[in-house]
Design a protein that fits this description.
This protein is an alpha+beta fold and 273 residues long. It folds into 2 domains: 17-128, Gnk2 domain, C-X8-C-X2-C motif (Killer Toxin P4, Chain A); 137-243, 2-Layer Sandwich (Killer Toxin P4, Chain A). 30% of the residues lie in helices and 30% in strands. It is elongated, with a radius of gyration of 18 Å. The structure holds 2-acetamido-2-deoxy-beta-D-glucopyranose (5 copies). One 2-acetamido-2-deoxy-beta-D-glucopyranose (NAG) is lined by residues 33-34, 36, 106-108. InterPro entries: CRR_secretory_protein, GNK2, GNK2_sf. Belongs to the cysteine-rich repeat secretory protein family. Residues 25-127, 132-237 form the Gnk2-homologous domain. Residues 1-24 form the signal peptide.
Length: 273
Amino acid sequence: MASFLLVCSLILMMGSLFLGSAAGEPIYSLCNKKTNYTSNSTYQANLGRLISSLSSSAPATGFANDTAGEVPDRVYGLAICRGDVAASRCRDCLAGVARDAAAGCPGNKGATIFYEFCHLRYSGQNFFGSSTGTEISMWNTGNVSDVPTFDRLLGELLDNLTIRASSSERRFATGVVDFTSFQKIYALVQCTRDLAPETCNTCLMDEISYIPQCCEAKKGARVIGGSCYLRYEVAPFFNPSAAADPPAPPPPPSVPANMSPPPVGTTAAAGKS
Ligand SMILES: *[C@@H]1O[C@H](CO)[C@@H](O)[C@H](O)[C@H]1NC(C)=O
Ligand SMILES: *[C@@H]1O[C@H](CO)[C@@H](O)[C@H](O)[C@H]1NC(C)=O
Ligand SMILES: *[C@@H]1O[C@H](CO)[C@@H](O)[C@H](O)[C@H]1NC(C)=O
Ligand SMILES: *[C@@H]1O[C@H](CO)[C@@H](O)[C@H](O)[C@H]1NC(C)=O
Ligand SMILES: *[C@@H]1O[C@H](CO)[C@@H](O)[C@H](O)[C@H]1NC(C)=O
């Protein structure tokens, strides 16, 4: 993966994008600067407690959402690890995120701190159950050869995975499809588990529809938001055994399946928070 040059773009100006790195992993902090807390406030204390409890409870199952304190100083937060990541790596990742939270967005009441294998999101507003849609995209600068075939297969694969993830307990799915006789497309999709199946579906569809804008013809890309995530590459990047989910039941009829190919020119996420 080190050989992949990644480009990152912030498409939702909810705050500023902070780029840094810690423990050798990339981190992207989306800081919501619209509301701040003051030093030594009740909010700050609640936030500190919440971050430490989320980062210790999430590794067991890969996800936790919780609140700390009472309105008006209540903090809402979630912590999540990528679905194929073992508990020990999840714990390390969230420890890094917890450390970086204060430094990444000092004084801001809300933020999302993204690492490669986990992310942490918190806010003074209740955001549980709602979709952020697309917030960040990154792409591999390498181009694919046969774009129409690639787009068709990738669209099908992502549609299939979206249906599987939305209806699965862990809101997570991975898959592989043959692109050429010697090249495959590997993809992973995931939602935070506070999302209902339909909302997970909506979140991932928003990200899929952003691919033509950010990442057309690219060999790999990530489209990332505080409540869902997708990534695809022409090289393996996830752990297939850990990623194996129990066989999914047939998708519920309420889940739309007509998501392919992603339309060009849809609004990415402007105006969403
Ligand atoms: C919050 O703090 C940031 C600095 O981190 C500042 O840029 C921003 O203007 C502040 N927002 C408000 C609403 O005071
Ligand atoms: C916050 O508390 C720390 C440690 O008790 C103290 O050093 C600092 O001056 C306080 N800051 C403010 C703004 O009150
Ligand atoms: C986590 O999110 C779910 C779904 O929105 C919500 O019903 C639940 O109360 C949240 N859990 C906590 C501990 O706040
Ligand atoms: C991929 O295609 C773009 C646009 O056609 C071009 O600017 C870029 O140099 C290509 N990248 C590589 C690695 O060939
Ligand atoms: C998508 O799912 C359908 C139905 O299960 C299957 O026939 C098709 O091969 C899948 N396509 C990809 C690219 O995974």
